[in-house]
Each structure stands twice: as C-alpha cells, then as structure tokens.
Amino acid sequence: MSYADILDVITSCNAYVRGSGLLPNYHEPIPTRGPSGVSLFKRISPSVVLVMTGNYRNDELTDLGIGTGALIDPAGYILTNWHVISGYQVAVIFFKPASGTQLSEQSAFGAKLVAQDPSADLALLKIVKIPVGLNAIKLGDISYVEVAEDIHIIGHPHGLFWSYSTGVISQVRDNYKWTYSDGSKHSAKVLQMQTAINPGNSGGPVLDDSGNILGLVAMTEEGQNLNYAIAVDEIKAFVSGAMSGRTRGGEERSNPEPVEQLAAQTESGLRVSKIVYRDLVAYYVRDSKDRPVALEVECSNGTTVRATEPNDFGGFGDWLVTLANGKKVVAHSNGTAPETIQSR
Question: Residue 125, SS3?
Fold first, then answer.
C-alpha cells in the first residue's frame, strides 16, 4: 500500500461522509410532465448515480464536488463529464435510495477512473465491486435526433438529488468550442437545449421519450438560457475507444519521498516499518515470513486509519477510518481501492 493508495481510501471515506450527510435532504421529486415522464423517471433514475469527489491537500479535504453519472454497462461502467472528475483518481458512487433517504450498505461504492477525453469533456468510471441487478441506460442514435424533440434530464442541480426536468433540443452543433472557468478548453459535437441546467447536473443523461441517452449534460451559458450536452455519437466513439483500451486514464497520484523510515521487530517476530511523510505516519506490520498483517496510519489533521485482513493484491480487506471530525467509516476491498463503504 503506497502513500497514494492510503490517501485514496481517506478521500473516499470523506466523500462518502459528505454524500451520506447530504442525502437526508433528498426528497423524491414529483414529475409533472405526465404519465410518460413519471414512468420514464421511475424506470431510469435507479441507473443515474451521484458522483462525489474530493482531494486531500495540506491536511484538508478540499475541492469536494458533486456531479451526475449514467450507468451505461451492467459491468459497472459509469459515464460522466471530465470536468466532474478532473484531478481525481477515486470517486464514490451513490445509487438512488429505493425509498426515503436511508443509505443501505449496497448504495455507496468506490469507483476508479478508467478513461477520459478532456477535449470532449467525457470520462468513464468503473465501480470496483459491482452490485447485482444493475440495469444500464442504452445509448441512442444521433441520426434520429430532431430539432424541437422533447427531452428528459435527471441529475442533481445544486445538490437537489435525482431531480427531473424536461425541455427540447434547439439545435445540433458540430465542433462546438467552449472554455470553463478553470481555463480548460473543449471541443465536441453538442446538443443545444432549452431546459433547466444548473451546477450538479453535469454528467446527467439527456434522454429521449424511450429512455435512451441522446447526450450528456455539460454546461450552460449563464444569462443566455443556452444549455449544452455532449452528443451521443461523441459518447459512442469515446466509450468504444475506452473499452478497447485506446483511451488512457489520468496520471496516477504522486508518491512523495518519505521524510524518515524506521524498522523494528517485536519479540513475537512481527516486523514493523514506520514511514514518516510530511502529513502522515504509516506503520506497516508484517509477520516473520514478510507477509502483511496490518496497517496503521496517523494523519497530522487527526485522521486515523486501521487496515486488517490482507488480500492477494497488496491491499487490505477491512478498513476502519476515523476522520478528523470524529466520524467513523468502514470500507471493504478485495484490492487497494475501497469497494463498499458505510458509516459505523
């Protein structure tokens, strides 16, 4: 387990607490479009996810972000915007509660970035441990898209989770160029839409009346009532490249050089390595045959980590993370990244 792996676990647990803390404010939206809108929302919304991200910098969890994602493959592949996950390697995926706001043990999952296209503002995540019973949203066909066609959007505008809105397609625009506030420049075929789009909608699916994805919400021009989504043919090309391994993910999180390293052995034969970094101290415990036994971490901001049950991939199966605010989070993993996460 590297420094970066440890921070990924801590970041995921912090993002989980952030998301689970917001969910009690969620209320099931009431579609007013008519029977077709109600039916579409009930059928598709379980496959629209909340994407929660964050960074760990200077002893603080920063840049917490909320975005939307669409499950496009029952193998656990989540489509979202590049700008939702830009700068992150790990995210926590929340599935819509079946009823009310109660998180079940199966509702929050760790996910890793597997592919991205910064220019087209697209990213593909994969859930580490795939829950059963997933139903993917189908990708539509750009050749059937019509100007003035009715569309349906599901997302999380301003943290109002799983909100439903409708609108129409105003135009399809090739090679549209735009720039975000961080200076990043983008170009793609887009759908120009007349509908309500707000922060948090990013990465949400734009659906036709049959529930097929026509686009992925990307941005809005404030004050202009102009909203845009990445067109489905751009999405298909990106997903095809990602699945065939031609589209690479982002750079791995850096592993800084330790400030100090010490080693000792107990009377019972356990070997303990102490590795000191600028913002945390990690204690690796191994048995007399050099097999991992446990990991203990103390962060300078008060966060502590205890990992036990070593697995075959160099990680640990069970994690207990006590965050700086005192909240305790349990994570489980068959690799190095958290798979299922829950409060203790």
Answer: strand
- The residues near 223 (Cβ < 8 Å, ≥ 6 apart) are none
H or E element, residue 235: helix 232-243
Could you give the residue numbers annotated as active site?
83, 121, 202
29 and 196 Cβ atoms separated by less than 8 Å: no
Q: Tokens in use for 161?
A: 């989770």
The span from the CA of 218 to the CA of 123, in Å, is 12
List, in sequence order, every residue forming a beta bridge with 304; answer none if it has no partner.
Answer: 298, 322
* Amino acid at site 15: A
Read out DSSP for 38-76? HHHHHHHGGGEEEEEEEEEETTEEEEEEEEEEEEEETTT
The two three-digit tokens of residue 136, written as one number: 């993917």
The identity of residue 238, as a single letter, is F
Rounded to an integer, the average pLDDT of 320-337 is 86
**Alpha carbon of 145 to those of 109, 165, 170, 209, 260: distances in Å?**
34, 19, 11, 11, 60
Question: Which residue in the block uniquely carries the two structure tokens 């005192």?
Answer: 326
Q: Is the pLDDT of residue 60 over 60?
A: no
Strand 108-117, strand 122-127: pairing? antiparallel
The per-residue pLDDT for range 156-201, each reduced to its tens digit, is 887 788 988 888 999 999 999 998 888 889 999 999 998 877 766 8
| 3-class SS letters over 149-165 | CEEEEEECHHHCCCEEE
Say which CATH superfamily domain 3-127 falls into: Trypsin-like serine proteases (2.40.10.10)
Burial of 208 by CB count in 10 Å (0-12 exposed, 13-18 middle, 19+ buried)?
Answer: buried
Cβ contact 155:252 at 8 Å: no
Classify 7 as helix, strand or coil. Answer: helix
Which tokens belong to 209? 């009346």
Q: How many CA atoms lie within 13 A of 232 on its CB side?
A: 19
Tokens representing 38 are: 């109600």
pLDDT tens sequence across 84-103: 888 776 788 999 987 777 76
Where in the chain do CATH 2.40.10.10 domains reside?
3-127, 142-231
Q: Which fold has domain 142-231?
A: Thrombin, subunit H (2.40.10)
Residues 101, 107, 108, 114: is their CA dihedral positive or negative? Answer: negative
